[in-house]
Specification:
Elements (H helix, E strand, L loop, with lengths): L1 E5 L4 E5 L1 H10 L9 E4 L1 H9 L4 H11 L5 E7 L1
Antiparallel strand pairs: 1-2, 1-4, 3-4
Helix pairs in contact: 2-3
């Protein structure tokens, strides 16, 4: 499983390899070792339309909440 957290702390939950691959395929990475992304409500809409699981969408919606966006990071457990 893969753990998602708010960058700088705050565990969000776990996702599977398919959801991780969706993040990697659709979000910008600054390098091959980059494991963090900036997520907005528009980002979540794109991921939803691209087949993100309800679990991933829910985690990201809770993380973004009413803010403009948040930085998340992932780590393989």
């Amino acid at each position: 499983m893969i753990s998602l957290s708010l960058k700088g702390g705050g565990f969000l939950g776990t996702i599977d390899e398919a959801d991780l691959q969706l993040l990697v395929d659709h979000l910008e990475e600054e390098s091959d070792t980059d494991t963090d992304y900036y997520v907005t409500s528009d980002t979540i809409d794109v991921l939803r339309e691209s087949g993100a699981s309800p679990g991933l969408v829910g985690l990201l919606e809770r993380a973004v909440g009413d803010s403009e966006g948040v930085e998340i990071s992932w780590k393989k457990a």
